[in-house]
Write a structure and sequence with these properties.
Number of helices: 9
Number of strands: 0
Largest sheet: none
Helix content: over 70%
Order of helices and strands: HHHHHHHHH
Strand content: under 5%
Radius of gyration: 18 Å
Distance between the termini: 37 Å
Number of domains: 1
Length: 210
């Protein structure tokens, strides 16, 4: 009974770690200004109810985000086996990539993508703004560490939080303003940097370099 409780506790902590990491790396608050710009342009051109436009665009983006998260969570481990990449090498490479991402998040004010007529919610909202190279590589690393199913469940938790934030992004942007959202993005960058350092150190430990 005690072993079962400890096993459940460990699994829950793994899911929480994956969910927090993936959510921080996706960094939905930083993508909200671009999303709002896209929604506003569509609402003005279609003369439609803004709430209906928000629901339609967010649902389309969320579907793409969900598919990408599931794809890299489930097939990431097999990609590593095909290319014969060790877990230690992947941890170090993924950590370096996340450090670059964290620095970019700290220095940039928001995730900027030009919104043009004819663009869809898939590009650039879902990818690369939400699910970019950092998220993809992290899911591959976690699928190797924790297993594909555990990684997928953790990613789904992060997806749920992301969907809620995007769904109410228009209201959040209206009441909180761009500066608050940028502040949340900076906080996410600190979390991402911490995850990156831990990945690199664990890779060095696996190679017995430290």
């Amino acid at each position: 009974m005690v072993e079962f409780i400890l096993e459940i506790s460990q699994k829950l902590s793994e899911l929480l770690a994956i969910a927090v990491s993936v959510f921080a790396i996706m960094d939905p608050p930083a993508a909200i200004p671009t999303l709002i710009s896209y929604i506003s342009s569509l609402a003005s051109s279609e003369s439609a109810d803004i709430e209906k436009v928000v629901v339609r665009i967010v649902n389309k983006a969320a579907t793409s985000i969900l598919l990408l998260l599931a794809l890299f969570s489930l097939v990431g481990e097999y990609v590593l086996k095909v290319f014969n990449i060790s877990l230690e090498s992947l941890r170090i490479a993924g950590g370096l990539l996340l450090i670059i991402l964290a620095v970019d998040m700290l220095l940039s004010k928001e995730k900027i993508e030009e919104v043009r007529s004819g663009d869809f919610a898939v590009v650039p909202i879902a990818t690369p703004l939400i699910v970019g190279p950092g998220t993809m590589s992290t899911l591959i690393v976690y699928s190797r560490i924790y297993g594909p199913l555990t990684t997928l469940v953790g990613a789904l938790i992060a997806f749920t939080a992301t969907y809620v934030m995007l769904r109410f992004s228009y209201k959040a942007f209206k009441y909180l303003g761009k500066s608050v959202l940028q502040g949340l993005g900076k906080f996410m960058a600190i979390i991402v940097a911490s995850i990156a350092v831990e990945l690199i150190l664990s890779g060095f430990r696996g190679l017995k370099l430290i």
